[in-house]
């Protein structure tokens, strides 16, 4: 289908095997108010062709004495009387001095997913009317994916997302028919977006809008499958997002360093497909798993591939270094009683708990030493109550003196131990160099040590020596 878009949102649609005439009076499209426009100025037709990839071509025929001008790549061409000229998308057609139109071509290769028989027949009729084509499978030539209003997250849907192609409901094509009849612009895609049927997948419908960033989401990444069926399921999807994929084992053997490379994504073997598990894979799979665990990487589930494309990110999905267990643990530690998000520090909580226990243990030990058990007492006479209070005060004074003497003895022992430790530190030579922190290894926290010889109190963190990671090349993927 071709369209000539003019001023004031005027869109002239020309369907396959149709003609539209332009002129002042004897025409389909009236061009009034310009003396240089003839009664019948030009005729534009859409004809079938086999010469190019386009299914139809747009031909303009000039029938005016003043001529028609076509601007292509900033070069003007004036058509003589009865001259025919094939238009290209983007050409500017000028009738007379006032009227200009831009030639646009709309190709429709529509793929359906999740439609019932009635909606499928409606879609087929609309595609034939527009000069489009209805396809059962997704490929690079597809332009639209048509789904039901509530859709499952299928491979076709993921391919359309990775290819940055529109995903619409069948109501979109009904609106296209109305726009053609009223010579208006085509409807907006965002007004006809579906919703996801899966309840566990919380997705906003606007995520289905075309995003050019998805075309390069997997650029530079290499996916390794252990199942041929799984490979053929996701190969087209990975390629559409700019990545590469292969089936293990390849003709050119992949070493453990290849599989632990920075850009290597090892896909998990399907648990329900034991027929694809060869002897080589059965032996190598546990070894590869251990090698990945040694470098703190993981085997990625195949379900993460469409999720990464949906959310257009590889920070969480298809990231071998992302630990879902740690992520879930951190999420459980975050709670929001109000508008603020408070993250509990387990280290500080433990220390506070220990301090609280120490404060409570002192009176309990004193009570236990004197075998005094606190109970509720009831009095019937005021004199008995006074006598009992005086006896309790005497007991408490004696108990306080005993506890105080015990505390003094304990403090003397602690001070004596501290003096002995200081004397030993003075006798020991100061350690310097790379092993300065060895004396702190017996402490509770060794990953982050406070250097006391630096006045500013700067903290240093021990970091392991990182070996440069290998980058898996496309040449390694020889099937």
From TrEMBL:
* Short name of one Pfam family: BRCT
This protein's UniProt keywords: Cell cycle, Chromosome, DNA damage, DNA repair, Nucleus
Q: Where is the composition biased (Basic and acidic residues)?
A: 404-430
| Top-level taxon of the source organism | Eukaryota
Q: Give residue ranges for domain BRCT.
A: 107-204
Q: Per its record, how is this protein called by name?
A: BRCT domain-containing protein
- Asked if the record carries the keyword DNA damage, the reply is yes
By its UniProt entry, which CDD domains does this protein fall under? Answer: BRCT_nibrin
